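Predict the holo structure. Ligand: flavin mononucleotide.
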Amino acid sequence: MSRAQLVTASKHAEHCQRNWDRSQSMPREDVQALVDIATTMPSKQNEEYFQLVVSVNSQLNRLIYDLSIDPDNPATLHRNAQLDAHAVFVWFLHKPEQLNMTDKKNRAGFFDVFRLNAKTAIGISSGAVALSACHMGYRTGYNQCFKAYELRDLMIEWGITNLSDEKNTPELALGVGIPQADTPWNHVLDDEGNLRKIVDTESKNIRWDIIE
Ligand SMILES: Cc1cc2nc3c(=O)[nH]c(=O)nc-3n(C[C@H](O)[C@H](O)[C@H](O)COP(=O)(O)O)c2cc1C
């Protein structure tokens, strides 16, 4: 793994992939490797701040895509096709009481803000998945716009039964898969391959300094 390859993977991960080549599939070993990465990256004091659900079921992923809207914002309709991917990773908050934690105390009983640490853990986990997946040749797209309770209920319906507490909210989702060839990442296609939407892209230029 060269430095240049890692930087290229990061540049791919920066963009939000919104179309997928459905004629190809992801090997299960690759999905499992990404699950292993997601669940071993560091969290504060190694607490289990989140629970991960990964769907490689295209029927379920389409349902997740359908829920990935803001009902108050019509522009989000058919926008978040990043979750119509080959594999969809969803990070749920893990209910603190299940771990003898409270919103303000960790397992050892010391002051710790659950939500902040949980969000940080999800960020670290998902970032590693995105970078690794792009390094493996896949593309990725994040999404935080979904009907959270309906998404949780959908997962329960599909067999993830321990998400029934209202604190088990989905916080972040990431689509991973094989992009449609010769198609810009921000083009959303319909099932016939026709252009449905072009999503505006965003760029950033984060200041950095190295102190010698
Ligand atoms: C934490 C997080 C949440 C995001 N949520 C959304 C989202 O809800 N909807 C969306 O369209 N893109 C979402 N994105 C994708 C970013 O907007 C995208 O990575 C960024 O705009 C750069 O990609 P672009 O070149 O495709 O614009 C999210 C990205 C991150 C990291």
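The longest strand covers residues 170-177. The chain has one domain: 10-181.
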